[in-house]
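Appendix B, example 12.
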Amino acid sequence: MRVMVLDAGRLKEFDAPYTLLKNPRTTFAQLVAQTGPTESRKLFDIARQKYYSKKTIPETQEDEDQMERSAVIQEIAKPNKELVDGFQSLTAATVIVPNGTGSERQPEFQFESTV
């Protein structure tokens, strides 16, 4: 979470509340100080606690699967100088891979394309 402090419609400060409260010269810290010593201390403690206890969003299996697929696609889409430079775009990747087991007569390369 971040706090945006505007003055006359212009951005003056933008940061985590705890970061702004650590510097007593910030506008945000001065506004909090106007609430009184007890309340401002309470707000400072809450901001510090939240700052150091940031929660992470748990990953789902779907996210992990997508990341794995992306890594495989990136690895496959890398041009292989030993074969032929591949064509790459944002929507498609063409990869040239050796074909066959070596015992049967087949074309030297097999073309695979994904869209």
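The chain has four helices and four strands. Helices lie at 17-22, 27-33, 37-52, 61-77.
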